[in-house]
Fold:
Amino acid sequence: MGHGIAQVLAGRGMDVVVHDPVATVLGTVRQRIASNISSLGGDATVAGTVALEPDLERAVSEADWVFEAAPENLELKQELFRRIDSAAPASAVLATNTSVIRVGEIAQRAVNRGRIVGTHWWNPPYLVPLVEVVQAADTTAETVERTMALLRALGKTPVHVRRDVAGFVGNRLQHALWREAFALIDAGVCDPETVDTVVKLGFGYRLAVLGPIENADLIGLDLTLDIHDYILPRLEQPSEPSPGLRERVRRGDLGMATGAGYRTWTKEQAAEVRQRVLTHLAAAAE
Structure:
């Protein structure tokens, strides 16, 4: 995510500095950006404009904007923002790319919490237009406005998430779907392939052009209410992750990286899925 966000910024002519504490990872940043751009038929020389800095404080010392894309570890992110807040210019906006953690929790160790905001980019950030701008309790309106304006200037579609809830909007919707999908498999209703086929070739086929609220208004709220009166009491309502998910992780079946998860994958099949996603998103972005 970090190098993808850097790619978007550099592609718009901005001076970009990337920091990573792992030297081998930092050393591949330009190569990964160039590979992304080349795969889309763009000018990969942009990658060479990105500066690399192994020291965090030096990386942010002259920044107007800081986008953090560290792993989803609250303790790690809290410490990062304590250091970034101390080292970055007072006028800089500090943004976290967390997918689910509340922004206010991440900002707890920082002094200047009014300039800390959530910017949840979607992967890959150089192709997916949406960015959720999450306003925590201490985030100032000016910070939100500046962030929305920058993202629009980058060609993105920012949305203002007005309450700092875990998972924000997109991931609360996405993981509600995943929760029900895993529950259907656990209950023996269908196999994993059927779940994916139903989503992709059923309601997922129209999701890019018809959101759930538009759909409800389209079919009529009276019909929507009748459907919900019947089905909602019958949906799974677990408060814990799926037992089947937990068991797969326990035995080391983690997905494409290990060759098996809910489905089995060869390296060629995994590569085909990744390429299919990139091809689809690139076509949608044209």
In short: The CA atoms of residues 61 and 153 lie 23 Å apart. Residues 2-161 form a domain with the Rossmann fold fold (CATH 3.40.50.720). The beta strands are 17-18, 51-52, 65-68, 93-96, 116-121, 130-134, 157-161. The mean pLDDT is 95.
